[in-house]
Amino acid sequence: MKASAFAYARATSVANVLELLTVHGEKAKVLAGGQSLLPAMNLRLVAPELIIDIGELAELRGVVLEGGGVLTIGALTRHADLLKSPEIAAHAPLLMDAVAHVAHPAIRNRGTIGGRLAHADPASELPACMLTLGAIVIARGPSGERRIAASEFFAGIYETALAPQELLVAVELPVSPNNSTHFFREFARRHGDYAIVGLAAQALVKDERFADLRLGFFAVGDRPLLARSAGKLVDVVITSAVLSEAFSALDEELDPLEDQQATATMRRHLAKVLLARCVSSLLDRPDLHAGASA
Fold this sequence. Notes:
With 294 residues, this protein is an alpha+beta fold.
């Protein structure tokens, strides 16, 4: 199957994009890397009347370490560029680990961080990382710039807080503290496939306890989940009983979907497996790994 007929416009500036979006609204789609949009068009899942190609807008590309400890990532920065960025390696290593699991090299060479976030696939790695890292999504529209917390950006399956006339232009990440540690794992049938369940975590560990812990799960519902159950594990000595209590709290938060890859029950189980492995790894507690069997 091929895409239905559409008009094409190559944007010359962000202002030009906003002019086109203001005129065409929901009838237009923005083309960045095209790794999600084009397959959806070929399957007739979406049928835009106008494609706005922003691929040549150099102003939306690159990673910059700003004053005040903030990393700004342009929306057109490709996954492959994130993997090669010394700023990402030094100040957001969780994101680098996650990007290595995104699809395959050919897709990482074309796909962009802005496209991945705007697509809002709940099985995608990067939206969960944005929650875990406390990112701010920057959108620009006819009324100016809008800053949206990642926790408010993802609204459902392929749904975000972006208005039809807005363009995602950048992401801001606070620099990870020097004493922070992180964990990233996902279950997938093959490396590069969409995750069955995944977890992106960042923590501060002090005196063999979590001083802070953020758990970003993906593929466990209609959007990424920043688990409140992480609070059960902060500032306490982790025992099997404490971990079991966290499992129960996590179970109440999860609302996994069932599809051809896994049942909801299986996804609940795998989320707990990942949580146990995460805690065991971050605290260097092999004794806790017994609760992490799949």
